[in-house]
Specification:
- The chain is of the alpha/beta class.
- The chain has helices spanning 3-27, 42-69, 72-80, 162-168, 180-193, 256-259, 303-320, 365-386, 398-402, 437-455; strands at 110-114, 148-152, 173-178, 200-201, 210-215, 220-226, 231-237, 246-254, 267-270, 280-284, 287-292, 328-332, 391-395.
- It is built from ten helices and 13 strands.
- It has a seven-stranded mixed β-sheet, with helices on both faces. A four-stranded mixed β-sheet has the order 7-8-10-11, with helices on one face.
């Protein structure tokens, strides 16, 4: 019998002795009518003795359980007991609730390790894959790029559990705000969730850039809002200096196509990056202040970094200015491209078939600058948002994705024999592929946030 099992019996015995003593005193009289001890002293002495015995006997046994009951681990298990779903799938065995030590772990620093059980869907089982990311359909000859998982240096990162995710977000909504890589992420999540349920299209428009999907059984809605520059922008020249378009960016103006739509969303996942490589003209207060590679006379080249910083600053300011918004904002950091032997429009390609080790991939140059700008603007926005009770979270995917030169479509976004002019795609990600890990990160962060709420 365990120590805990003795406790109820010991308590019952002690209480019985106490009750018996009091009753005995009340119901009996001394045979001679008088005693040498005053009657009013007997219950106090008896009661004191019983209480001392009770305290000495019980306290040592009960103390460990008081400590255990107040531990965060017990509260965490109670909080999430209802979302542990039985999936009858060995792949889910290591996606149970994380141990308390994981909260102190940096899940974004680590290595890619083999995962022979992946992928968890295929291009034949998921209709949400866009053609340009459907690498297996269009003849990619290798498949090892799908069979890796992210292993943090100091803990384990559970593989995405769609049952847990849908239980956590039940009755809520999630918006992906940004460019086509953000849409790529949402498509990955739809495929991962397909093991539980397919969503229905509840879009307000036929525009593919603004889609809404709903999971009826969980009353969960996800949406994508296309805003490649995050701020108001328009095409000034469809070709521009590099035949990729010239864009006017109004760096101090909100893009109302998304800022007017996110008020009631519970989660916002914000991203942006690759569109800032293209030629841009920067406007502030309705006037041109500079540009990036616009090749216009008397317009200073402020570089892409100027526009990038101001765009994120304006986007965060738009979110923080929403009067009744109570959601959580996730910034998904920049995912570097992997063009080799040329830039993206001059023959560059990505033909590697294995991930880098962390020692082989250094964040530097333009990638480092864009990443640091995001972190700096994020910290400023977080400080301002905290005044309104808003939560800002960082999905720091940059280093992990820097190590995945093997995960891009390259030329496998169309049939090899087709007479089409498409650049090699070393920006987006094959599905299934490395981008599925972003859902691992997101679910882990949602679970840890829930645990912190449970222990606060």
């Amino acid at each position: 019998m365990t120590t805990l099992s003795y406790f109820p019996s010991l308590l019952l015995l002690s209480l019985s002795l106490l009750s018996f003593s009091i009753m005995k005193f009340q119901d009996s009289e001394h045979p001679f009518g008088n005693t040498t001890t005053p009657k009013h002293m007997i219950p106090k002495v008896t009661l004191l003795a019983i209480l001392v015995i009770l305290a000495l006997a019980i306290t040592p046994l009960w103390y460990p359980f008081l400590s255990y009951h107040s531990s965060s681990l017990l509260k965490m298990k109670n909080k999430y007991k209802h979302i542990q779903a039985s999936t009858h799938d060995d792949d889910m065995a290591h996606s149970n609730l994380p141990s308390a030590y994981v909260e102190m772990c940096d899940i974004f620093t680590g290595e890619w390790v083999p995962n022979p059980k992946a992928p968890y869907y295929t291009n034949k089982t998921c209709w949400a894959i866009h053609e340009h990311q459907n690498c297996m359909k269009y003849g990619r000859p290798d498949s090892e790029f799908m069979k890796w998982r992210w292993k943090p240096s100091d803990c384990e990162l559970p593989i995405f559990n769609p049952f847990q995710f849908l239980e956590i977000v039940k009755g809520k909504s999630m918006a992906f705000v940004g460019d086509s890589v953000g849409r790529n992420q949402m498509q990955s999540m739809i495929c991962l969730l397909s093991r539980v349920e397919w969503p229905i299209d509840v879009s307000y428009t036929s525009d593919e850039y603004f889609k809404r999907w709903k999971y009826p059984s969980y009353n969960f809605t996800m949406a994508t809002f296309w805003t490649p520059h995050l701020v108001r922008s328009k095409v000034a020249d469809s070709k521009g200096p590099s035949n990729t378009g010239l864009f006017n960016l109004y760096l101090d103006e909100h893009d109302e196509k998304w800022t007017t739509q996110i008020q009631d969303f519970d989660y916002i996942i914000l991203d942006g990056g690759h569109w800032f490589y293209r030629p841009m003209v920067f406007y502030e207060r309705k006037k041109i202040v500079g540009c990036h590679f616009c090749l216009m006379e008397n317009v200073p080249d402020l570089t892409m970094f100027y526009g990038y910083r101001k765009a994120f600053r304006t986007a965060f300011r738009a979110i923080n200015s929403l009067e009744d918004f109570k959601g959580t904002i996730f910034l998904r950091t920049f995912a570097p491209s992997h063009f080799e032997n040329g830039i993206w429009n001059q023959g560059g390609n990505c033909v590697r078939t294995k991930p880098f080790r962390s020692s082989e991939a250094q964040l530097e140059g333009t990638n480092l600058e864009l990443y640091m700008i995001q972190l700096e603007e994020f910290k400023k926005a977080e400080k301002e948002g905290r005044k309104k009770g808003l939560k800002f979270k960082l999905i720091d995917t940059t280093q992990a994705m820097l190590m995945r030169p093997d995960g891009h479509p390259s030329r496998y976004g169309h049939w090899a024999h087709e007479n089409v002019t498409l650049y090699n795609d070393c920006v987006h990600w094959c599905l299934p592929g490395p981008i599925d890990t972003w859902s691992d990160f997101l679910l882990q962060m949602l679970k840890m946030e829930g645990m912190r709420s449970a222990t606060s």
